Amino acid sequence: MIVAFSVTPLGVGEDVGEYVADAVRVVRESGLPNRTDAMFTSLEGDWDEVMDVVRRAVAAVEARAPRVSLVLKADIRPGVTDGLTSKVSTVERHLSE
């Protein structure tokens, strides 16, 4: 399963980078395959471990912000591993043709 999610603190002003870094730190320390870009962090693993990391990432932001917004999109596809890399590789292969 791949989950793309965004955790946004609310009520802390416009500069939210340090709060988002708290969430990304949880993801990176999880040891699960992950990738962060300007809008989302993608994370790959089984349901329980991925959702646990998302829950802990939200909790890290919630510990410092009065309100938290979570946007989550999941690709639930049993038996597929290395989807973070293989999906992008497939698109890049088509672009190079």
UniProtKB/TrEMBL annotation:
- Domain Thiamine-binding protein, first and last residues per copy: 3-92
Q: Which GO terms describe its cellular component?
A: cytosol
Q: What InterPro entries does the record tag this protein with? A: MTH1187/YkoF-like, Thiamine_BP, UPF0045_domain
Any single Pfam family the record assigns to this protein = Thiamine_BP
Family recorded in the similarity comment: Belongs to the UPF0045 family.
**Entry's NCBIfam families?**
MTH1187 family thiamine-binding protein (TIGR00106)
What protein is this chain from? Thiamine-binding protein domain-containing protein
What is the protein's species of origin? Streptomyces dioscori
**Lineage of origin:** Bacteria, Bacillati, Actinomycetota, Actinomycetes, Kitasatosporales
